[in-house]
Amino acid sequence: MEIAELVDFLRNYDGKPIRLMEVCGSHTHAIAKHGIRGLLSDKIELLSGPGCPVCVTPTAYIDKLIELSLQENTTVVTFGDLLRVPGSEESLNAAKGRGGSVEMVYSPMDVLQLAKDNPYRIYVFAAVGFETTAPVYTLLLDQAVEQGLYNIRLLTALKTMPGAISYLCDNGARIDGFIAPGHVSAVTGADYFNDLAKKYQIPFAVSGFGAKELVVAIYGLVQMVINGDSSVKNFYTSVVEQDKNPVIEMQINKYFEAADVAWRGMGIIPGSGLLLKDDYKQFDAGSMGLDVDNKKNKACRCGEILMGKAKPSDCPLFGTACTPSNPAGACMVSEEGACNSVYLSKN
Amino acid sequence: MEHGSGGRATGELIREIFESQFDSDVLSEMEDAAVVPGDATIAMTTDSFVVTPLEFPGGDIGRLCICGTVNDLCMRGATPKYITCGFILEEGADIPTLRRIVKSMADIAKEAGVKIVAGDTKVIEGNGGIYINTAGVGFVSKSVDIKAKNAKPGDAIIVSGNVGDHHAAILSQRMNIKNSIESDNAPLQDMVTALIQEEIPVHVLRDVTRGGLGTVLKELAMASRLSFCIEQEKLPVTPQVQSFCGLLGLDPLYMGNEGKLVAIVPEEYAAKAVEIIRSCKYGENACIIGKICAPKKDTDAGTLIMNTEIGGQRYLDILQGEGLPRIC
Predict the structure, then answer these.
(1) Residues B133, B48 contacting (CB under 8 angstroms)
(2) Cβ contact (<8 Å) for B320 and A39?
(3) Which of A85, A298, B177, B310 has the most CB within a 10 Å radius?
(4) Is residue A347 very low, low, confident or very high in pLDDT (cuts 50, 70, 90)?
(5) DSSP letter string over A283-334?
(6) Does one domain contain both B156 and B134?
(7) CB contacts < 8 Å between A and B, how many?
(8) Is B327 inside any structural domain?
């Protein structure tokens, strides 16, 4: 079938309402960027799940980064997205404005040069992310060890996807199919989602990030829902294998171990995070127990939105007290956030 | 620090590095203020330049500061005439680098037809940084009225060339990524003069700098309370910049440029305007990327919509977040 035919089908679909969730921030961004929502019938709803790393990070983590940035002789190094995420009282950006030492970088590897140039200063990298980002931090640690740069630390908020998907399914999120994360699957293999599909009888479609790739995967997933097919289908075969990447798995297992960690709005999910192993604790800046999620604006409904229980437009702050330029909740901050994506799609 | 004392060392610095390169009779008078001829309506602008690194593929802070100031004047339809520059040098600033920057300023000022008529130098503590503040004056002829609020429904939106190059060049240099991407920093006065001389009734001109094309168009949409609509497939982006953005998760629509303008002209003049821009030195990839519509309902006023390649629509906002600090 041609893409135009698939779009026609999706636009004119008039069967039972279908709710699909993507659990990858890059998908959320790509869906907004390509205007995919506008191509779908009202009967097909796209929900953005807990796949944006900054959105699922509890306020305690941001507060800890702020505390570190204000500590003598310490610099927090981070990706730009994290700067504007509200903590319990303020964002890292605000802390920077009142003297916090914060550097924005595009790659975690940039911290190596900083640490080399200023050996008596501690550099804390804000290591947020999922299965996809964790391998990069292991390369950073490889280099830190090799070059003897013991003034580098990680404040980790690393999460793994299956625990969160289970949590959603166990806690009443009504979802008919998952668009499985393309980048995560490139690391873990498509089979990573088999057990979840079987347990919850929900189909998964592994998708790429181009407009056509997303249309193909969404069409495939809708067909699976219609046909009651609860398997995992890989629509991103150019990049994703069925099986996991053994080299990356070994690298992650060298430095990290599974841990119970907190997700914004969802609480602690057993085994859903990665913390540094005891052998490498000297590189940890205090990542354990950052579980408290204490939003300043209590009306923010980020948690329910990430679980697909509320739409961004259901939140009283959406588009008024919470906009991309002045985000009250984490989901409005990044282009990968559920609220930001809907705000920019005007849907 | 002695070079900023105002004494002998300051004099040497000014004579050897600045005066010899700028070759300006007004500057050479070394008076407290430049007195220059002129009797038309004047356009004035000022800008500061803090880019890092100081030199990058396709340009340097010197070329950048002249182009930036010239272009700001041009965007009101002015002919740029005079520029002043204030240098803030951090202790340890590399003199050969400073010489190259000053020569670069002199060369591009000559190309753009502007005179550097006054200057100042201060030296402060620091780590060898060089910062430049400029002010520019240009003359506007009475018949020219170019401003954001002049946009009309039905107008065509033209961009003068590929977007994202400057941002990608700076970022590549900072990240030590080797590629062939060069900054686009260039003076646009010939392009603007040509449009005016050929009697294109230009409604709006805007320099597409920090924040990128997306931000500039959204700001214009908001200023005019109209609805701007652009076509994704028409956006001019080189394959190199496109792949660079793909790797880093950047969007060329929100990347800074230093030698591109947006021109908004009545639709019937659009093809001719593109032809004129393309015939200019820095405009070979100019194209029409969209049009302006009257808002159908109140909520459409001030919107910027992009029709995506697959037939969807994306509402664009101004750049959110950090972008890239110290890009210009």
Answers:
(1) yes
(2) no
(3) A85
(4) very low
(5) GBSS-TT------SSTT--HHHHHTTSS-GGGSTTBTTTBBTTB-SSGGGTS
(6) no
(7) 64
(8) no
Weakly modelled stretches of chain B, pLDDT under 70: 1-6, 321-325
Question: Which of residues B124, B140, B156 is at a domain's end?
Answer: B140
Q: Which domain, by its residues, includes B112?
A: 2-140
- Tell me if B312 and A106 make a contact (CB, 8 A cut-off): no
**Residue A2 pLDDT > 80:** yes
| DSSP H stretches of helix in chain A | 3-12, 25-33, 59-69, 92-97, 110-117, 134-146, 161-170, 182-188, 194-200, 211-227, 246-255, 302-306, 338-345
**Which chain A residue shows the shortest CA-CA distance from B308?**
A34
For residue B77, give how far its alpha carbon lies from the nearest alpha carbon of chain A (Å): 32
CATH number, residue B10:
3.30.1330.10
- The number of distinct structural domains making up chain B is 2
Domains of chain A: 1-293 (3.40.50.11740), 302-345 (no CATH)
Q: What is the pLDDT of residues B161-193, one digit of tens each?
A: 999 999 999 988 888 788 899 999 999 999 999
Q: Which of B309, B314, B322 has the CB atom closest to A344's CB atom? A: B314
Is there a single domain that holds both residue B11 and residue B117?
yes
Residue bearing tokens 């906002």:
B317
Query: How close A345 comes to chain B (CA, Å)?
Result: 6
Q: Which residue in the set A35, A107, A335 is minimally distant from B313, CB to CB?
A: A35
Domain shared by B133 and B246, yes or no = no
Q: Which two tokens stand for residue A338?
A: 């559920």
Q: What are A134-162's pLDDT values in tens digits?
A: 999 999 999 999 999 999 999 999 999 99
Q: Is residue B322 part of a domain?
A: no
| Cβ pair A34:B313 closer than 8 A | no
Q: Within this chain, do residues B103 and B188 fall inside the same structural domain, yes or no?
A: no
Model ipTM value: 0.73
